[in-house]
Amino acid sequence: xxxxxxxxxxxxxxxxxxxxxxxxxxxxxxxxxxxxxxxxxxxxxxxxxxxxxxxxxxxxxxxxxxxxxxxxxxxxxxxxxxxxxxxxxxxxxxxxxxxxxxxxxxxxxxxxxxxxxxxxxxxxxxxxxxxxxxxxxxxxxxxxxxxxxxxxxxxxxxxxxxxxxxxxxxxxxxxxxxxxxxxxxxxxxxxxxxxxxxxxxxxxxxxxxxxxxxxxxxxxxxxxxxxxxxxxxxxxxxxxxxxxxxxxxxxxxxxxxxxxxxxxxxxxxxxxxxxxxxxxxxxxxxxxxxxxxxxxxxxxxxxxxxxxxxxxxxxxxxxxxxxxxxxxxxxxxxx
Length: 335
What we know:
It comes from Cellulomonas xiejunii. This is Imelysin-like domain-containing protein. By secondary structure, this protein is an all-alpha fold. The protein is built from 14 helices and no strands.
């Protein structure tokens, strides 16, 4: 899906600009959001107050606390869970945005707004109480606490397992709160699965695969080889670019991590920060330019719109009931 609703759902981060090898006319903007996009904005609460905890999240936190108590541990519901959402900056992904802000990972998109790379989620009283409680436990008891809360590792070695079965109080409560990947009545399983699986269908569409391959070739010519899809480009900011930057400037911050505090970074090593921002900008401009050249956004939007229209036509009644349920939940969450 395209638009802010789709991007958030599917799928729960400047300086010298280098010229890139791939250039061409600016790509037209994607088609307007589909009917399904608008309905999902309502279902997923894209216009809801980000400071208010949704009722279903509060219930998940309370169920987690009850489960942990039954396991012999304390757990305080996190009143900040499910809050603090943000709206995607206007124009992100375009060449103009990239030239000024990169991806917004290391550059302030708004004055005084900490870039994504250094953004810290809001702390809460529940989180502080839980940290204090874990700190009071012996190492062995703390390990048992983590196992009870989060369950067994996916495969014991941290590797991704597609058919991972959740365990632990938090995961089990979350699965009950959002069965099949989305909140909502359990008997809406079919439409939830249709929405959940749409991302994979778009990714595997022949037209999108062709545009993605041409984008990857363009990025290789621009000096960024080995990328499989556009998300790989964004991930380079937090992996390759940041890793290279950290190894060079960790000593200057007095921290082995080197970049945990944005204020420390921008006041103690401003020149180094500009260098990192310049690298991000160059990457983002190459990415946006290549997407324009191969028509990636337009191609993807057309494929998404077709699939979204099919889902809207097939599950219209279920979607309307789902949206009504979501609006009722938000009404119950209102202070």
